[in-house]
Design a protein that fits this description.
four-stranded mixed beta sheet, elongated
């Protein structure tokens, strides 16, 4: 019985240590949520402005000749997979990897420590991924696309819907799609629409990548906070259960000792 009591005491200490860890990680995640949400909101606004500009340019008839408008339904696929920098965030990373690998891409470019570990590349953190990093990547992607290395390029990231809901999804960024959105009549492009499109395309791709990275990081810290909250609740419940079991075992041991003493004195 003594061995059982000692084992229970050690388990209670172990779970209590885990509880302290989950609380600490939850507090760190909570502290990052506000800043991450603000950065995400700004990047969304910038990405929307880029979307509107490129959509108007792509709707122009002259832009149909652009290399960035060619059909990309068949051919090699390149994906940018944006995952988290750490684990302990529930299914955040695993759900994104499942979606990315279901596309059977010919190349996956990882962003985020977990993605870099999975796909074998020098670590690039999502949290510190900058616009200058995105510009370098965008230039490389545009060159590869124009040279026919890839026929389709997309970003796999986690979309923030609410504090309770974040879902992995794919946004295809190349080739550009012709839309019904007409250019405003008061806008005059110099020298012409296709030249302007060729000039802004790298900035457009870079902006989309940065926006996806900021959104993914927000989802990561939110997912980690809820995962740590749930882990903390489970640890608390386990401690209560173990303490109850420990008290019962201790009471049983005391009762047995008293019984043995009484029996011995009667002899």
């Amino acid at each position: 019985m003594g061995v059982d009591i000692k084992s229970l005491k050690n388990r209670i200490k172990s779970v209590d240590s885990t509880l302290h860890l989950t609380k600490a990680m939850g507090l760190v995640a909570s502290a990052k949520i506000r800043g991450a949400t603000i950065a995400m909101g700004k990047s969304r606004e910038y990405a929307k402005a880029l979307d509107d500009t490129v959509s108007m340019l792509a709707s122009a008839k002259s832009c149909e000749k652009s290399e960035y408008m060619k059909n990309g339904e068949k051919g090699k696929i390149c994906l940018i997979a944006i995952a988290g920098d750490r684990g302990l965030a529930g299914g955040y990373n695993s759900n994104l990897f499942k979606l990315a690998e279901a596309q059977n891409a010919d190349k996956i470019i990882p962003i985020g420590k977990r993605a870099c570990e999975r796909y074998g590349k020098e670590q690039v953190k999502t949290e510190t991924f900058s616009y200058s990093d995105a510009v370098v990547l965008a230039k490389e992607l545009c060159e590869d696309f124009k040279n026919g290395k890839y026929e389709k390029i997309g970003i796999v990231f986690t979309k923030y819907l609410s504090m309770m809901t974040q879902t992995p999804e794919i946004e295809w960024i190349l080739p550009l799609r012709k839309t019904d959105k007409k250019s405003k009549s008061d806008i005059i492009y110099e020298p012409d629409e296709i030249t302007v499109l060729e000039m802004v395309i790298e900035e457009y791709i870079a902006g989309k990548i940065v926006s996806a990275a900021k959104e993914s990081f927000t989802c990561e810290v939110v997912a980690r906070r809820f995962a740590m909250d749930n882990a903390g609740k489970n640890a608390g419940e386990m401690i209560d259960s173990l303490k109850l079991e420990y008290n019962r075992a201790r009471q049983g041991a005391i009762t047995q000792e008293i019984t043995e003493i009484v029996a011995g004195s009667g002899m």
